[in-house]
Amino acid sequence: MPDNTFQKSLKARPRVEYVSEYGFRKLAHLVVLVLLPLKVAPTNLVIFHTILGILAGFLIARGDFIWAAILIQIKTILDNADGQLARASGMVSEIGRYADTEGDFIVNIALFAGLGAYTGAWFLALIAFIIFTLLLSLDFNWEYLYRLERKEYFRPAPDTSKENQVVLRFLENFYATIFKPQDNLIRSFSEQRFERLYQKHPNQATREQARLEYHEADGLFVLANLELSTQLLLLGICLVFCVPQLYLWFVVLCGVVCLGLQLRREARAEQVLKKA
Q: What is the pLDDT of residues 126-154, one digit of tens each?
């Protein structure tokens, strides 16, 4: 096995999620080493860990917390492994990317439904689910805008000519229905907030510098470390200690943190504009 398999399987990001980078990705690499010679399709791995996640949601609703926590961590390892396997094997595909994102979304529905069913706190579970979904979208879109502002590489244009077009169209339409409105909302809101700042201190000479401060990396660091692997690890811990409702309140707190990050990036940009 080539020595550079692990490095080849990783995806470069401006800021890393520590739990994933130094924990789950190491474990996922062991899975990759087993599956790589077997030529297992990464999308099959996506389907399998999606089923595990749905089953975990069912177990949470029943109160089988230990088994649910175990399945969630296995799901997280495999969720890291599918992308690493795709990159290591050269089998990266648009179907795989869409399936991974949408499979996670279905699992998240199952997990929060399970939490709502067990705790009876349906409204809190719904609010937490909405915040959780927006948190993941915020992480993706802020990284996209960060790279765009610096004219950095984000993702190559995919060659989908050899993919199943029926499946691809279905997954694209699913994404366009569920996630595209979130992407547009976050990017539009982000731009509107910056323009509002600029109108208060209109100085073209410092505009680009202010935009760089606005789309900064420290916020990405915080969001990256509130990402899916970290969230599911914390959910597992709350389940082991039989405090599932505590996790719902933690997600609500994450929403407050995101608001603070937005105010902070605005303050950084405004400081640059005021100094001009």
A: 999 999 999 999 999 999 999 999 988 76
Whether the pLDDT of residue 158 is over 80: the answer is no
Entry pTM:
0.92
Task: List C-alpha distances in Å: 64 to 121, 126, 241, 244.
Answer: 18, 21, 12, 11
Q: For residue 104, what are the contacts with CB-CB under 8 A and spacing of at least 6?
A: 50, 53, 79, 136, 228
With residues binned 3-state (H G I as helix, E B as strand, rest as coil), the percentages for the chain, rounded to 5, are 80, 0, 20
In angstroms, the CA 104 to CA 106 distance is: 5
Q: How many CB atoms lie within 10 A of CB 121?
A: 17
The three-point CA angle 189-177-84 to 5° equals: 90
Contacts 24+ apart (CB under 8 A), 171-179: 171/94, 171/95, 171/98, 171/99, 171/102, 172/94, 172/98, 174/98, 174/102, 175/98, 175/101, 175/102, 178/102, 178/105, 179/101, 179/105, 179/137
pLDDT digits (tens, 9 = 90+) for 12-67: 677 889 999 999 999 999 999 999 999 999 999 999 999 999 999 999 999 999 99
DSSP 36: T
As a whole number of Å, the CA-based R_g of the chain is 20
Q: How far apart are CA 228 and CA 234, in angstroms?
A: 10
pLDDT category, 110, cuts 50, 70, 90?
very high
| Number of neighbours of residue 270 by Cβ within 10 angstroms | 18
User: What domains are there in the chain, each with its CATH number?
Assistant: 5-151+164-275 (1.20.120.1760)
At position 244, the amino acid (one-letter code) is P
